[in-house]
Amino acid sequence: MSVTVMVTLLFLMPVFQYTPNVVLGAIIVTAVNGLIDIAAACQIWKIDKFDFVVMLCAFFGVILVSVQDGLAIVVGISIFKILLQVTRPKTLVLGNIPGTDIFRNLHHYKEAMRIPGVFILSIEAPINFANTTYLKERLFSALSSS
Length: 146
Hints:
The chain is elongated. By secondary structure, it is mostly helical. The chain folds into two domains: 86 residues, no CATH class; 55 residues, Transcription Regulator spoIIAA, CATH 3.30.750.24. It starts with a helix and ends with a helix. It has six helices and three strands; from the N terminus they run αααααβββα.
């Protein structure tokens, strides 16, 4: 593909020299139209709202500002999200589904039951110095509510 683009730019650019900018703009809009996927955007909305916001920032940043600034905004937001996930990991209180060896989130699975005398807390990130205080607070609040 890159060789085709290179050959086109080297040898066919003189042919496009006298093409009006409006026609070139129409060609670009037609080519880019296939890149916009509304169904994928709806799927991202259902899966993760924050990723949907990042997608919108990328789209409008590139459209309204510039490609470099739009992508810089997206990189900044993505780094913020990574830091947020590292410092505030998701924690889940697990319970056993009766008759099985399966443990699931008590809030999502109504049939999951707590085991008397046992408290199971799932931490969905590595434990490190950046999130120990947050995890200690989550653990104490989960223990006090149980």
